[in-house]
Amino acid sequence: MGDITNYFGMEKDALIKRILSLEEDVEQLEKELAKYKNPNTPSSSNQHLKENTRGKKAKKGAKRGAPFGHKGITRILKALNKIIVDADKCPKCDSPNLKDKKVLKRTVIDIPKKVKPAIVEADIHVKECKDCGHVFVPKQNTIPLKGDYGIELILLIVIIKFTLRGVLRKTASFLDYRHDLDITAASVNAIIKRVADVAENEYNELKQRIRAAKTVYVDETSFSVLGDRCWVWVFRSDEDILLVIRKTRGSNVLREILGENYAGNVVCDCWSSYNFMSDAYANLQRCWAHLLRKSEELTETVVGKHFHEKLQELFKEIKEFNIQDPTDEQRLKKYQEMTNKLRKLTSYYSRYKDLMPVVKYINNKIGEWFTCVKIEGIEPTNNFAEQAIRETVMVRKIIGAFRSETGKQNYERLASLISSWQLKDKDIADELRQMMIRNLCFC
């Protein structure tokens, strides 16, 4: 091929300079890419890196489009009110000599310009039974016994704050713009606190259900409270989602929520705080999504690529086995077989220095990668917890930090209850309404 410098048509010094420049560019790009593709960032957070859903026949440059199976926007509208838009004279010359050139038929959905709040005066008869002395408020009451705001207005404020991620100031501005309601951000905050305060019993009951759950998916993320770094922990069962905010990422949070002797199944990453549960009574399943993201970082080398592919094959084997509805005996046998297979795999690849971080990551928890094979109904990844904590990550991006202990407590309680209702496909507005009526409208 001859002299390589002549082959590229460049002098040696210029070629070396060009190579060094390209190496710097590659290093910078790798740093940028690491912000998006790393073991602690799930693929769902990187929508821009996902494959498109355009199909093979789509033109190059076409928009990504909706996911396959996405429902369209076409709907059949049945008009309840009919209006006629007509004119009796020409706006240019005032002539009444007009004719219809055509009539446009339009059917639309609309809302009133403004829905102003109504001021309701209620006489609430607090009754006392002459026979037993029982004092009560009639069960049909829906008027709060304290405060100046009614249930539906309070409900709207909580919905805006927690489902639309509205900040206090903008929530107050919206109520002024849309409902002519002169209310301050401080009043909005006081209303939210009132609801969070009366939600204490429901929140404590939620904690008890999480502690009694057979399987719990756990994750945590940082969140600033009054300038201090705290952690939002999420505990998700099949039917509930619990959020707690603590100043520590340590195992004492797990002891507080699940108890010292929790005997269920815990799906988690390999953070050291979970280790004590292995020594207790719990069955731990370590997250394969975290593991595969770590091993994917090794695929720049041939041996790293082979290691990653072997781990992918094991993950595929887990899923294929679990859909067969095996017996308990078959599960235990498969667990031992796959654990031994993983142990042999890490033993073989431990000879490669570049692979040692992932090899150690696996070996430190070697008996906890196939719990989902041994025990029915456990997922091999912690995606359920990551999905549950995603809303909190979005809130963190919007508000930056909690600026009071009260704000932190409000979020813990109401976000937990709303997330749990969503998980069970319940009507959030109706659940909130009933909870507030129970706790605000009776003695």
* CATH architectural name of the domain at 200-283 and 383-412: 2-Layer Sandwich
Number of extended strands? 8
Largest sheet: 6 strands, mixed
The SS-based structural class is alpha/beta
Fraction of residues in helix: 40-55%
DSSP helical segment count: 16
Strand percentage lies at 5-15%
Shape field = extended
Give the ordered list of helices and strands.
HHEEHHHHEEEHEHEHHHHHHEHH
- What's the CATH H-level superfamily name of the domain at 200-283 and 383-412? Ribonuclease H-like superfamily/Ribonuclease H
Distance between the termini: 93 Å
Segments where pLDDT lies below 50 for 5+ residues?
A: none
Provide the CATH topology of the domain at 200-283 and 383-412. Nucleotidyltransferase, domain 5
Q: What's the level 1 CATH class of the domain at 200-283 and 383-412? A: Alpha Beta
Average pLDDT score = 89
Q: Radius of gyration, Cα only, in angstroms?
A: 30 Å
Descriptive overview:
This protein has 443 residues and is α/β, with parallel strands linked by helices. Among the domains are: 127-198, no CATH class; 200-283 and 383-412, Ribonuclease H-like superfamily/Ribonuclease H (Nucleotidyltransferase, domain 5), CATH 3.30.420; 288-374, no CATH class. It has helices at 4-7, 12-34, 151-162, 168-179, 185-198, 200-212, 251-258, 275-279, 288-296, 302-322, 328-349, 356-363, 371-374, 383-399, 405-423, 428-440; strands spanning 127-128, 135-136, 215-225, 228-236, 241-246, 265-268, 283-286, 401-402. A hairpin with a 4-residue loop joins strand 4 (228-236) and strand 5. Helix 3 crosses helix 16 (428-440) and helix 4 (168-179) crosses helix 5 (185-198). It is extended and about 90 Å long. The model has no long low-confidence stretch (mean pLDDT 89).
